[in-house]
Amino acid sequence: MQQNRETLERFGVGGPVGDRLPWLRLALEGLVIIASVLIALAGDAWWGGVQDRRMATGYYERLLVDLSADSVELERALRFNGIYRSAAMEVIDVVEGGSAPPLGLSEVMHRVAWAGHLFPVAFGRATFDEMVNAGRFRLIDDPTLSASLLDYYWKQQRREDRTLVAPREFSAIARRWLPAGFTRAAQECLWTEWQGERRGDAAVSPCRAAVSESAAEGVLARLRSEPGVIGYLREVVWFADNVEFGLAAQRRLNARRMEELRRVLAPE
């Protein structure tokens, strides 16, 4: 008993067990421990919020870069799509006209090469896909911006998929009948002129690929005798009209999404 009493007294108990326990001190110590845990948790939450905001800002900046690149691609695609459509219309006039083309044989051959060259649009979505795949799209805490971006990239994918089903019949004819390498050279001319305009060159010289008159006359004769050519060309025109409508709508979406991101990155 004496030993038990000494043991209790060592822990601050002088009478019956529990009579003199330091409840106030224990309560204060408990409160201190709880407060320390809560402060630590709050600090972790605050730091996690800071990290999330920094990461979100980085993603906003990258999305803006992607959208800026998309705007350039949209302008190029609209420009080239208009050329392909006009080329198809001019070739239809030449084939149906039956007389010597007023454009000249070389120009007609360039129109033939351009009319069949409908190709996929190359949008950028690397940042968006990374955010979705890594589960970080939640970092966009603005529900309006989140919905806007989802709408933009969903429609972007639809535009890309749509161009994959472009009519290829006239393109196949053009490549088969035109001189070897001419179609590629004629397309590269469009790219050269576009690059010159992008650089702001005062006067961009028209780029034309070389083609002999005899080769051009042979291609024109085959175009006029081949059944189905007009139908293939009209299909190109119809498809180009639809592509232009979709690209113009995507360009408007692109401009609005860029403005929204700029407001988030530089609030008033």
Features:
75% helix; 9 helices; mainly alpha; rod-shaped; 268 residues
Q: Helices and strands in order, then pairings?
A:
Elements: H1 2-10, H2 23-97, H3 105-115, H4 126-133, H5 143-163, H6 169-177, H7 182-199, H8 213-225, H9 229-265
Binned strand content:
under 5%
Low-confidence stretches: none
Choose one word for the global shape. rod-shaped
Q: What is the N-to-C succession of helices and strands?
A: HHHHHHHHH
Q: Tally the helices.
A: 9
What separation lies between the terminal Cα atoms?
A: 78 Å
Helix amount:
over 70%
Count of individual domains: 1
Give the number of DSSP strands.
Answer: 0
Radius of gyration: 35 Å
Major beta sheet summary: none
Average of per-residue pLDDT values: 84
Structural class: mainly alpha
Describe the structure in brief.
It contains 9 helices and no strands. It is mainly α and 268 residues long.
Folded structure, characterized:
By secondary structure, this protein is mainly alpha-helical. The chain has one domain (about 20-265). About 75% of the residues lie in helices and about 0% in strands. The chain contains 9 helices and no strands. It has helices at about 1-10, 25-95, 105-115, 125-135, 145-165, 170-175, 180-200, 215-225, 230-265. The longest helix has about 80 residues, at about 25-95. It is rod-shaped. About 20% of the residues are buried. The model has no long low-confidence stretch (mean pLDDT about 85).
